[in-house]
Structures are given as structure tokens and as C-alpha cells.
UniProtKB/TrEMBL annotation:
The keyword Heme does not apply. InterPro entries: YdcZ (IPR006750). Keywords: Membrane, Transmembrane, Transmembrane helix. It comes from Oceanobacillus locisalsi. The keyword Transmembrane applies. This is DMT family transporter. The chain crosses the membrane at residues 36-55, 67-87, 93-113, 125-142. It holds the Pfam family DMT_YdcZ.
Length: 154
């Protein structure tokens, strides 16, 4: 079952990169906010249908959730909007490596402090070195994109 979850996650990463690229292109024609709106609207329709036919949870449970948990909806929308802004300007790989670096950075902090009922996993030098390497990767990928862009325009 764990292998299946890894494959699902891998497929999720593939779709995320494809989505970023397509949305970046669409945003040039339709606008950044409009592209984000289309994505959210499509998600709403798609998930409403799935909930109607396959849902087993309690949608009204959202009304009794703590406010801080509801912030996830705004965080997801913010992520999507920011990625639609970034991809056409810095490229898919630079945006996705930066996204992953941001995710890992905040994940280390969340784990270290045990926020949101997560496991407490102390920050150590190995994690700090890993984060440093991710930031170095972002830098080199971004610089490589800039150089490629300059070469393409000369």
C-alpha cells in the first residue's frame, strides 16, 4: 500500500508541474486572477460531483471546525495564485524547486515545534544542510534560466 501512495504522490507531482506550466501560459491570455478563478471553479464543480456520488464525510463538519483549520482554503488559493504569477516569469522548474524548498522549510519548522498536531521531530544539522542545498539548487536553476533566456534573445 505504501508503494501505491508513493506512486500517487509522484503522479500528483507530475500533474502539479503540468498544471503550473499550462496555467502560466493561460494567464498570459486570460490574466492571473482569472486563471486562478477558473482553476478553483473547475475544482469546485469537479469535487461537488465527487462528493455527491462518492462522499463519505460530513461536509457540514466544516461549520464546526476551528477557524485556524479553515485557513487551509486560503492557503491553497494563495499557493495557486502565487504559482500562476511565478511560472511565466521564472519557469516551471525554478518555480517548482522554490515551492518544494518553501514546503521543506516550513515543514522542518512545523515538525520541530509539533504545530498542527504533527510529530515533534527536532531540527538537526542534517536537515539544515538539506535546506541549504535546496536553496542553492533554486539559485543555480534560476541563474541557469536567466542565462538561457539571455542566450535565446541574442
Amino acid at each position: 500500500m505504501e508503494i501505491l501512495m508513493i506512486l500517487f504522490t509522484l503522479l500528483g507531482g507530475i500533474t502539479l508541474s503540468a498544471q503550473s506550466s499550462v496555467q502560466g501560459t493561460l494567464s498570459r491570455k486570460a490574466g492571473t486572477i482569472e486563471t486562478t478563478f477558473l482553476t478553483m471553479l473547475t475544482g469546485l464543480v469537479f469535487l461537488t460531483i465527487i462528493i455527491i456520488f462518492f462522499g463519505q464525510g460530513d461536509v457540514l463538519g466544516i461549520l464546526s471546525a476551528p477557524v485556524w483549520q479553515l485557513s487551509a482554503a486560503f492557503l491553497g488559493t494563495g499557493f495557486l495564485l502565487l504559482s500562476v504569477i511565478a511560472v511565466p516569469r521564472i519557469g516551471v522548474i525554478a518555480a517548482n524547486v522554490a515551492i518544494i524548498s518553501g514546503q521543506l522549510g516550513i515543514s522542518v519548522i512545523i515538525d520541530h515545534f509539533g504545530w498542527f498536531d504533527s510529530l515533534v521531530i527536532p531540527l538537526d544539522w542534517k536537515r539544515l544542510v538539506a535546506l541549504l542545498f535546496m536553496m542553492i539548487a533554486v539559485y543555480f536553476i534560476y541563474k541557469g534560466n536567466k542565462r538561457s533566456d539571455l542566450e535565446a534573445h541574442t
